[in-house]
């Protein structure tokens, strides 16, 4: 991203109330995206994987076009309202990573686990972030920006949503593991990592939670057979 474009997306003009409203709206979009992905995978059947690759290519193209200022209208207001330009340098990074996680999950796990793992990241992450920002008061001892209220609420939401697709034991394990991972992944931590850019990009809860939760649920499923 060019320095001029980055400067235009600092969003310093947003007061706390507007920024909070934008974050809640962003989480609703994140939740809607997860639900849409589940419905698409269910409806698409055998062509679900090609469809997800098409969506991924589309979002990557839009992201690159945004970075290069190729659109005939400014997107800075949109990105400031619903993105995290001060923390994520790539437009639509969250959606791109969620699609990558869904694609790998679909390649590795049975479809019901794919649905459940997407539900964990969509419901759990969204509820945890929204509750943590709105009513969170008690910080987790190992995370400076995550709260007990947010993590617990996210785990409950993730369990209820994923239990629609897998057994209660699998849902509990996937939700607990996913929210534990969500609580320890921090964008501030990522910035401090002395590693390759590609690693920093994929070290994100939208990408890792579907894979980690899916793996846990898959292992529990194997142990019960």
Number of strands: 0
H/E series, N to C?
HHHHHHHHHHH
The outline comes out as: globular
Helix-residue proportion: over 70%
What is the number of independent domains? Answer: 1
Largest sheet: none
Ranges where pLDDT stays below 50 over 5 or more residues in a row are: 1-10
First-residue to last-residue Cα separation: 49 Å
How much beta, percentage-wise? under 5%
Average pLDDT confidence is 79
Structural class: mainly alpha
Helical stretch tally: 11
Describe the model.
- Helix content is 73%, strand content 0%.
- It is mainly α.
- It is globular.
- Residues 1-10 have low confidence and may be disordered.
Concise structural overview:
The chain is mainly alpha-helical. It has helices at 3-8, 16-44, 48-67, 76-82, 93-108, 111-134, 148-162, 168-184, 187-192, 197-202, 205-223.
Map the helices and strands.
Blueprint: H1 3-8, H2 16-44, H3 48-67, H4 76-82, H5 93-108, H6 111-134, H7 148-162, H8 168-184, H9 187-192, H10 197-202, H11 205-223
Helix pairs in contact: 2-3, 2-5, 2-6, 3-5, 5-6, 5-11, 6-7, 6-8, 6-11, 7-8, 8-11
């Amino acid at each position: 991203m060019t320095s001029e474009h980055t400067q235009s997306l600092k969003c310093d003009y947003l007061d706390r109330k507007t920024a909070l409203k934008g974050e809640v709206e962003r989480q609703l979009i994140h939740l809607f995206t997860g639900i849409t992905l589940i419905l698409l995978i269910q409806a698409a059947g055998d062509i679900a994987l090609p469809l997800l690759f098409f969506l991924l290519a589309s979002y990557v193209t839009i992201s690159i076009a945004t970075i290069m200022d190729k659109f005939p209208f400014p997107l800075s207001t949109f990105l400031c309202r619903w993105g995290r330009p001060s923390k994520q340098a790539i437009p639509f990074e969250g959606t791109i990573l969620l699609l990558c996680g869904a694609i790998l999950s679909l390649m590795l796990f049975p479809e019901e686990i794919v649905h459940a793992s997407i539900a964990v990241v969509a419901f759990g992450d969204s509820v945890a972030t929204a509750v943590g920002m709105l009513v969170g008061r008690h910080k987790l001892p190992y995370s400076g920006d995550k709260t007990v209220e947010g993590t617990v609420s996210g785990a409950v939401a993730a369990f209820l949503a994923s239990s629609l697709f897998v057994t209660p034991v699998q849902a509990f394990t996937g939700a607990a593991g996913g929210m534990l991972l969500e609580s320890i992944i921090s964008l501030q931590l990522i910035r401090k990592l002395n590693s390759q850019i590609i690693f920093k990009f994929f070290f994100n809860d939208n990408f890792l939670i579907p894979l980690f939760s899916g793996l846990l649920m898959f292992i529990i499923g194997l142990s019960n057979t």
